[in-house]
Specification:
The chain is of the alpha/beta class. The protein is built from six helices and five strands. It has helices spanning 15-25, 47-57, 73-79, 95-108, 128-136, 147-167, and strands at 3-8, 30-36, 64-69, 84-89, 113-118. Bound molecules: adenosine-5'-diphosphate.
Length: 169
């Protein structure tokens, strides 16, 4: 069976991520979405919340599994018997970083191919960080995320507002 992993922070999963997962699920017999537990960035959602939101988003894709992982992505890929690692490439931001990462991963695991899929035009400028910013300012983000993610963002916003209100003397 040809297995691929699709690793990322998914904080939270967007339609851009989902589009890549759907397309990759047609190329491989099994796709495992790997959610980094502890990426080196500030997170809005816990690992458990991120996994849960990805699971709900891919519920209709029978050959897609979701798992949290820690440590080197290549080790996770090896443990799962993956032949490829899938990444999404947006026009503006991703190429150099992805290229560097692919070279480093190739050094550590020469047998693992990195398969980059071009982001679809409608999601080229969509990132989890921009999405969180827009959502926190009350922007309309409904067509950029699943309904579960929109609701989860709303809940975070309410909690954040409660917190900041409590902080005001
Ligand atoms: P990471 O911390 O590894 O960059 P992300 O969750 O930000 O994790 O992204 C995971 C993967 O999905 C990366 O390959 C990223 O380039 C890709 N990706 C992010 N946003 C989009 C998008 N809008 N369209 C296509 N691919 C995307």
């Amino acid at each position: 069976m040809t297995i691929a992993i699709y690793p990322g922070s998914f904080d939270p999963i967007t339609m851009g991520h989902l589009d890549i997962a759907i397309r990759a699920s047609k190329l491989f017999e099994k796709l495992i979405v790997g959610v980094y537990k502890t990426p080196s960035k500030r997170l809005l959602f816990t690992a458990q919340e991120r996994v849960e939101l990805v699971r709900k988003a891919v519920v209709n894709l029978p050959n897609v599994d979701v798992e949290a992982f820690d440590g080197l992505t290549v080790d996770f890929a090896k443990k799962r018997g993956a032949v490829a690692m899938v990444r999404g490439l947006r026009i503006s931001s991703d190429f150099e970083r992805e290229f560097d990462m692919a070279m480093m991963n190739k050094k550590m695991a020469p047998e693992l191919e990195v398969v980059c899929l071009m982001a679809s035009p409608e999601y080229q400028f969509l990132s989890s960080s921009l999405l969180k910013e827009a959502a926190s300012l009350g922007g309309k983000i409904d067509d950029l995320v699943t309904r579960d993610v929109a609701e989860a963002l709303d809940r975070k916003k309410v909690r954040h507002m409660e917190l900041t209100e409590k902080m005001i003397p």
